Amino acid sequence: MNTAQLIDGKAVAAQVVAEVRDEVSALRAQGIEPALAVVLVGDDPASHVYVRNKVLRAEEVGIRSLEHRLPADCSAEQLLAVVEALNTDATVNGILVQLPLPAHIDENRVLQAIDPAKDVDGFHSENVGGLSQGRPVLTPCTPAGCMRLLKQTCGDLRGKHAVVIGRSNIVGKPMAALLLQADCTVTVVHSRSLNPQALCRQADIVIAAVGRPRMIDASWIKPGAVVIDVGINRIEEDGKSRLVGDVDFASVAAVASAITPVPGGVGPMTIALLMQNTLTAARQQRLNSAAAPAIAEATCLSTC
Ligand code: GUN
User: Fold this and answer.
1) Which residues are catalytic?
2) Which of 50, 201, 223, 246 fits a 20 to 30 Å CA distance from 77?
């Protein structure tokens, strides 16, 4: 029986983290200290765990981290005031507002308030638009992490048929844009697609991002396909609580050529890419601030 190669997200994430750590230490040697601010609203236990992991990882790579906590009943205006203060704080390079926000706060309004240059999640419409136009912008961390895993696993992605299952703003849509940028032929399968299994069976690359435990079994997969499982679902099984992906691992590993496990696949990549985005944002802001006086001078010369 075929058994797929395991794509070790933990190991690749460790490589990314080591690269970022080296580059951060080079910046620090020049007196530049990249900083990431994480804003957490309310008491959602999963969000608390995610934020703690992000802060710990930042410290590990030498990125200064700031945590802002607001109560679940805070107003949108209070949250927006925190975001605005971080936007204007020149010592902060990256801002991440942990989602989901409490239902009474308009998520989109908050995401749009973040300075696009500090938007390390890549969720601001300026960055979303830039991604779809192929401009070099801050890119959502999970899809960027999937691309790194795919490039390391497949090498050249040109001409491959990639099927993305799911069309969320956080994963499905930016994933499709990144695959298109890598010259894949891209199909997005979603809850209204007709015969999604047959579409998926045509894929050389499958990205599962639906949020349904073990929905994708071997009947969805062409033999030899590469499968990236973005899902992280907690289920109760045999009296135990466990994490499973959107892919039925045992079934799919028998037909795929390579597959990510859950946990230990895409999950560690998301935080690693957040560190990389914070470094990129810090560098870009440094370049912009160095260029700003020159531009002001040039404008003055041409207009004065
Ligand atoms: N909640 C779940 N995933 C994410 C993410 O990638 N970014 C933010 N800000 N919140 C999340």
Assistant:
1) 54, 98, 121
2) 50
Tell how far the Cα of 56 is from the centroid of ligand 1, in angstroms: 16
How far apart, in whole angstroms, are the C-alpha atoms of residue 75 and residue 205? 43
165/300: higher pLDDT? 165
* Interaxial angle between packed helices 172-181 and 125-133, expressed in degrees from 0 to 180 and rounded to the nearest 10: 30
Whole-angstrom Cα distance, residue 302 to residue 29? 37
Give dist(CA 60, CA 96) in Å, integer: 18
DSSP string covering 34-89: -EEEEEEES--HHHHHHHHHHHHHHHHHT-EEEEEEE-TT--HHHHHHHHHHHHH-
CA distance 73 to 23: 40
Peptide bond into 100 cis (omega under 30): yes
| CA 43 and chain centroid, separation | 22
Domains and CATH numbers, the chain: 27-117 (3.40.50.10860), 141-267 (3.40.50.720)
Q: Which of 122, 106, 146 is nearest to 230 (CA)?
A: 146
Q: 253-283: per-residue pLDDT in tens?
A: 999 999 999 999 999 999 999 999 999 999 9
The residue whose C-alpha atom lies closest to atom 11 belonging to ligand 1 is 99
